[in-house]
């Protein structure tokens, strides 16, 4: 499957001077629907804190309200969802500034965030707009994690089984809850965990009950 239309390459691997994209290696793709059209894009951010351990773990937030809280935007699951920490880029902000602000507002910490990916979401219910989400990661933070009105932070193992030598408190951590996350996360999060820059696009549609499902998707990383 070829590089999706409308998808901007990662900030770490910008377009060439002639406007062409650098070479990307596909990591996951699917669906045979035509890519949905859109006219404008809204900028959002999503930030993740990881620890190499041992054991290796990732900090996610249980979304209590706001964008994506009930997963009705993209998928219908029970109750609420898990995600990184982020939100809309406000006027006058850079994506990096918005990512740092949202992280502080949603879980109370500061972190040396590094840009690592760009995602594009398009839905058949809103052809004028696409959601462009800039992804950031950090492997350390300062401050104390706190639960806020919007998010409840929680650590998860980055593998299905706890690592040997885990402390008693960490040995009870669950694996990443992909069944309680956005349906595209399982396709690009392995690249995030490997600290590989990536880009991706996912298009969604609504069924007769108003639930969302992926029509087509493509994710990849710059070729070596």
Through-space gap between termini: 19 Å
Q: Tell me the radius of gyration.
A: 17 Å
Q: In total, how many beta strands? A: 11
Give the number of helices.
2
Dominant shape: globular
Major sheet details: 9 strands, mixed
Strand content: 35-45%
Outline the fold blueprint.
Blueprint: E1 24-30, E2 40-51, E3 57-63, E4 81-83, H1 95-107, E5 109-110, E6 114-123, E7 129-138, E8 142-143, E9 151-157, H2 185-193, E10 198-206, E11 212-222
Parallel strand pairs: 2-7, 6-10
Antiparallel strand pairs: 1-11, 2-3, 3-4, 3-9, 5-8, 6-7, 10-11
Plain-language structure description:
This protein is mainly β. The strands form two sheets. Strands 1, 2, 3, 4, 6, 7, 9, 10 and 11 form a nine-stranded mixed β-sheet that branches. The protein has a two-stranded antiparallel ribbon with strand order 5-8. The longest helix has 13 residues, at 95-107. Mean pLDDT is 84; it is low at 67-79. It has helices spanning 95-107, 185-193; strands at 24-30, 40-51, 57-63, 81-83, 109-110, 114-123, 129-138, 142-143, 151-157, 198-206, 212-222.
